[in-house]
Amino acid sequence: METLLQDLKFALRTLAKSPGFTLVAVLTLALGIGANTAIFSAVNAVLLKPLPYPGSDRLVQIMSTGFRGVRFGVSFPDLQDLRALSQDFTGVAATTTQRYNLTGAGDPREVQAAAVTGDVFEVLQVRPEIGHGFTTADDRTPLALLAHGLWVTNFGRDPGILGRSISLDGRSFTVVGVMPAGFEFPNQDVQVWTPIGESLSQSPQGAETNRHWHFLNAVARLAPGVTLERAVGDVKVLGARLSASDSGSSGGRQRIVAGQASPGAGPPAPSSGRSILDTGFDVTLLRDAAIGDVSGRLLILAGAVALVLLIACANAANLLLARATARRRELAVRRAPGAGRGRLVRQLLTESTLLALAASVVGVVLSTWGLHALLAVWPHALPRTTEITLDGRVLSFTLGLAVLTGVAFGILPAWRASAPGIEQTLREDAPGATGGRRRLQNALVVGEVSLALVLLVGAGLLVRSFIRLNNVNPGFDTRDVLAARIRLTPARYPAGAQQTLFFDNMLASLQAHPGVQSASLAGTLPLSGNMFMLAFDPRTVRPDYPEPIMILRLSVISPDYFTTFRIPMRRGRGFTAQDRAGAPPVAVINRASADQLWPGQDPIGRQLTIGGPGQPAGPLTVVGLIDNLRSASLDATPQPEIYRPAAQQSDLREMWVALRSSNGRPLQLVGAIRDAVHQADAEQSIGDVVSLEQLIGRQTAARRFNTTLLTIFALLAVGLALVGIYGVTAYAVTQRTRELGIRMALGARGVDVVRLLMRESLRRVALGVGLGLVAALGVTRALSAMLFEVAPRDAVTFAATALLLVAVALAATWLPARRATKVDPMVALRYE
């Protein structure tokens, strides 16, 4: 211990005597350690931390599987059958999300609610912070549990909230508890929990017996001793048995199956049998379902910051090698009285470890700032973002990383500096003493360049991919459009006539606003992530169709929709005021639908029979044709779509109102929407208000997050590599001052000296670029899933990044090389 304290004291004195060296080394390492700390904090929260439920590794999600591997929720009859598997699960609970208009607690506001079975909190093993949860006996009782955030913001953290009533959609619910802070089930937007029976009472008749109504998300806890593999097998057997039984009793294939991705609603299904969409069940760990496919992206970012840290270590090692030259007499003198090589190595490693520990402190500060900035810009780019913090595990990781880094970048310089050869070292002009050191420095620079190029190529691929994505033409004009989601209170607007009147009044008010060029309604908004999906048997239209199912994306719209979004009609017409209830049912389709149903034919005037939300099955006449749109997402292949007039729907409870601004400032119309809604109904709340460009931003948030971070890391790597190149060249100039002076004294021009140093640097850079290109060819395959219309081995990106790195590296070499030509030959001849 006494020896260790001596080493620490000596290391601190030595580093304090060289503040410039210490500052540069600490900042270099801090960049690498800070980046690794930030990314590890995200990896820790998203991938390593268990879900905030006791025994969360035993919780699973159960979903139905269908045509082409589509996964969706389970029906109420499915839930009962799953609960019968008591040998696999200790409990199977279910939730479904919906929206309510909350009144009587400040201004009317829309809240997201989760209707849950009474055993859900028992399955999750979570208790309310105050009050109590539900039981199965409460399924038909109007009770409510509040999210901690809603309790704080709307009720002032009042402990007397228990037993009070709140108004949801005009109905009274008794508050029985408040959930703990951080409880986010089934998602972070839920603010109220109610018993499942309240949701069933608002659902279409037959929802409790209809296997087509896949509106429940099932969560179960594995029984003790039961493995996930066993549960998967048993649930698949159950699904196969149900499908076989229902297909034999349902009288043949069903033509119409409908479902939708937006919460809280769904279309009625026409029969009680299990549909051809239902092929079984799928069981996954709840944790895996919560994080989705984000693990690959995070691991790529973790690999990128590891490369940044390696480059920082190489830079620090080069600094130590250069510093060892200045200390060679000191180290030789310490060896002379008998200090062993091991003793010198330990002393030098103590210094490098102190540098790394100081850098870790700075790195933690940098990572804290970086995390706050990233989460502020992209709050939903990752799941579980509220759990991303610098906790004990992250700080332990940073401490361990600092010690490992200190040893990693210090061991080679320490070993070289403590090498035997006292007599040679004590000679002031011993060029052989620096030859090996120079080779090691050159090798480190080659490694830095190769690693930097790998990161630069990866960032270049993502940047090109993102540019391609931003240049995609979605088929509609995304500029100057503002949209707001309006969900009407069922008790106040129970039928289509009242709903239509409300929206007609609201649209009339908006269309009269001077800042509104056009206004329209839509059941689903492009790029919003919500969509109605219809599945029907296309062989009723085209007998030779190769598959028994065709999936259509359904949009319910008002006549001005195509005008608002500037979608041109290619054939036929759009909807008019005459396409109302009681008139012949009509539809507009896109080219993908026409090509599949009537290839090579004019679809105008053709008929097809489908069902949909609020609309029983019946023949529709195609009156219009539009081009394919990228309605689901910018990077998804356009799918078949069908549009129906809103006036021919019996239920318009939830609609989007979309406005095109006439002055290019759509966000200024927020007040106009609020005024129009409140003029129609002062107690009506407003849901999301968003511009179409903001929707695009939400859709591309994950891509922008990945691209931005990888680009930042690549630029850090390139900057560190260039510092290393500059340092090695400057060090070479210092060590070769006498040689360069002799050359100039013998007649060499300044340009010859510069050319000599540039040529030597170019050899190092070229070798690093060559190795980096080979490494990049293998590494970039991991980016395939993150690219859009760009190949992982895109030649343009590889060539451009390589040339860019060579050009910048030569610029970093030119500065010290140019300075070498300013040395007076006579002074250089007297050097050392």
Name the descriptors.
832 residues, alpha+beta, eight-stranded mixed β-sheet, six-stranded mixed beta barrel, globular
Quick rundown:
The protein is an alpha+beta fold and 832 residues long. Helices cover 48% and strands 17% of the residues.
Task: Give an overview of the whole structure.
This protein has 832 residues and is of the alpha+beta class. Helices cover 48% and strands 17% of the residues. The protein has 24 helices and 23 strands. The strands form 3 sheets. Strands 11, 15, 16, 17, 18, 19, 20 and 21 form an 8-stranded mixed beta sheet that branches. A 6-stranded mixed beta barrel has the order 3-4-9-6-8-7. Strands 14-22-13-23 form a 4-stranded antiparallel beta sheet. α2 crosses α11. The longest helix has 39 residues, at 432-470. The chain starts with a helix and ends with a helix. Mean pLDDT is 82; it is low at 248-276 and 428-433.
SS elements, strand count: 23
Q: Label the structural class.
A: alpha+beta
Mean of the pLDDT scores? 82
Nearest-angstrom radius of gyration? 34 Å
Shape: globular
**Could you describe the largest sheet, including whether it forms a barrel?**
8 strands, mixed
The N- to C-terminal Cα distance equals 41 Å
Instruction: Report the oligomer.
Output: single chain
- Beta-strand portion reads 15-25%
Helix percentage: 40-55%
* Model regions low in confidence, pLDDT < 50 over at least 5 residues: 248-276, 428-433
Count of DSSP-assigned helices: 24
